[in-house]
């Protein structure tokens, strides 16, 4: 496995070459087809997953049986760390949105690397704090915003994670399906379509090849963020 790939993962970016080699030797690689369940809520957790290629959604089921999407993760992101730290079962489902290639690090190796390399723990804490802030923002949008605001907030969350910002415009590529956006925004697929079309008509959003552009992103974020 190329060491350069591991260097691109923030969790391990500060490891020296020798430690990266040791880490690479501990990792296993598995490939998953699109729409495959990688982790199920309540499963016993013994593995950290690192996304080498592809995209996954983190979700939970509501009491009414509806899917609620908590996050969408892509290349360089990781998941499964909570179960490794507290020894409890998984807290959410993880399903691939595209054909994906994942790196697997088992619990004993993970804890050993944290013990020998405290900087991993610091990077992990930063990532968990960032995810907590995003969760707080998502809760705010679901509880305080109307349907338009919730759709806009979902676009902002995706833009902050995956968007390409240039000259005040954000390019969104690989946007989730309208069904998945609806599950992120706590609304219906029809509402997603209606709000997106209105944003396009008003010039707030422009449809581009393979995705969308959010024009004047700072203004958009100030209004709906």
Strand order of the largest sheet: 1-8-3-6
Overall radius of gyration: 18 Å
What is the percent of helical residues? 40-55%
Strand content: 25-35%
**In the residues, how many domains can be counted?**
2
What is the succession of H and E elements?
HHEEEEEEHEEHHHEEHHEEH
* CATH class type of the largest domain: Mainly Beta
Describe this structure in words.
- With 225 residues, the protein is an alpha+beta fold.
- The chain is built from nine helices and twelve strands.
- It has two domains: 137 residues, Sandwich (Jelly Rolls), CATH 2.60.120; 79 residues, Arc Repressor Mutant, subunit A (Orthogonal Bundle).
- The strands form three sheets. It has a four-stranded antiparallel β-sheet. Strands 2-7-4-5 form a four-stranded antiparallel β-sheet.
- The radius of gyration is 18 Å and the shape is globular.
- The chain starts with a helix and ends with a helix.
């Amino acid at each position: 496995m190329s060491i350069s790939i591991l260097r691109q993962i923030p969790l391990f970016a500060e490891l020296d070459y020798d430690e990266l080699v040791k880490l690479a030797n501990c990792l296993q690689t598995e490939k998953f087809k699109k729409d495959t369940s990688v982790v199920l809520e309540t499963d016993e957790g013994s593995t950290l997953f690192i996304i080498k290629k592809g995209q996954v959604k983190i979700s939970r089921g509501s009491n009414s049986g509806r899917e609620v999407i908590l996050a969408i993760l892509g290349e360089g992101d990781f998941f499964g760390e909570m179960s490794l730290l507290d020894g409890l079962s998984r807290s959410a489902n993880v399903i691939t949105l595209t054909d994906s290639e994942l790196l697997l690090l088992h619990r004993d190796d993970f804890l050993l690397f944290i013990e020998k390399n405290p900087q991993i723990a610091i990077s992990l804490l930063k990532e968990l704090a960032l995810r907590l802030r995003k969760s707080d923002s998502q809760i705010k949008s679901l509880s305080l915003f109307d349907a338009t605001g919730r759709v806009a907030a979902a676009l902002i969350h995706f833009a902050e994670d995956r968007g390409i910002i240039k000259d005040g415009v954000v390019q969104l590529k690989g946007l989730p399906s309208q069904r998945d956006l609806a599950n992120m925004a706590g609304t219906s697929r029809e509402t997603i379509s209606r709000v997106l079309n209105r944003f396009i008509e008003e010039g707030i959003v422009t449809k581009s090849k393979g995705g969308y552009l959010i024009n004047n992103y700072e203004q958009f974020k100030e209004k709906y963020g």
